[in-house]
Structure formats: structure tokens, C-alpha cells
TrEMBL record:
The active site is at E79. It comes from Glossina palpalis gambiensis. Its cofactor is Zn(2+). One of its GO terms (biological process) is proteolysis. This is Peptidase M14 domain-containing protein. Residues 1-115 form the Peptidase M14 domain. Belongs to the peptidase M14 family. GO terms for molecular function: metallocarboxypeptidase activity; zinc ion binding.
Amino acid sequence: MYCDMHAHSRTHNIFVYGCENKRNAEKKLSEQVFPLMMHKNVADKFSFENCKFKVQRSKEGTGRIVVWMLGITNSYTLEASFGGSTLGSRKGTHFSTMDYEHMGRVFCETLLDYSDENPNKVKKQTKLIKMIKKIRKREKREQKALKLKKLNDQECIIEEKLKVKQSLDESLS
């Protein structure tokens, strides 16, 4: 695993940028297990929903992508917001030094759990991959529904403009 840590000025919560594993079908979504475990361990600060795993060409010089290209599946940039949390009991609060220290502890504890070869923990990770698949399918459905709604809204606007144009044409003739 590789992880560099940064502060983020715009997005709230603590989250990671990772690298989507499309090269190896056996490892598909495995890069998202550790961040989901982090979310489960500290859900009032760490947001799995804010995590992004796309590799953008403009970011190819970043540490996480360079290390990922060397073959490290779990390569992340951990981002901690200056803006605080929007989650649970911490909603609307800023992070303190104690919060960041707590996240460091949770990161290490989660890393220990993640690397534990106990069959029960391995089984739990397999369940988490299934959960991630469901989450990603739901997100795709929501994105598709949003695109359809936008198309429908655009069609309604075009129809409305045509009606106005026809009305103007009729009144001018």
C-alpha cells in the first residue's frame, strides 16, 4: 500500500483518491475495500461516497498514480478537508488536531485489519467487494436516471420554445 496525505480546501470530509483497477479482472474493485473499511471505522469523518477512483491523464504525475503504475493496487491520496465534516454527529463542524490524530490512528488500525490474513477477515473483505458492486450499480442507475431527466428537461424546453415560436408566427400572420 502507498498513501500520501494532503489537506483539501474545497471538498468536505476525509476521503481518498485511488486508482481504479481495470487491468486485472480478479482484482476489480479491490482498491475500494480499504477505503470502505475506513468509512465503517470512522463514518462521522471519513466518507466513502466522496472517494474517487478514476485515473485522470492530468494527474499521471501524482505519487499515487506513479506507484499504482508500478503495480501497487492500493495506492491512495488521503485528503482531509479544511472545511470539516458533513457526516453524522459531526455535520457542520470543523476538524481539530485531535480529529486528524484520531484519523491517523484509525488509518493504522484499519491497515492492520486489512492486512490480517485471518479467514474471517478475508471473508469480510469478500463481502465488502460485493457491497461495493451494489453501491456502484446503484450509482450508475442514479447517473442514468439523472441523464434521462436532463434529456427530458431539454426536450420540454425545446417543445416550449417551438410553441412560443409557433404562437409568434401565428400572431404575426
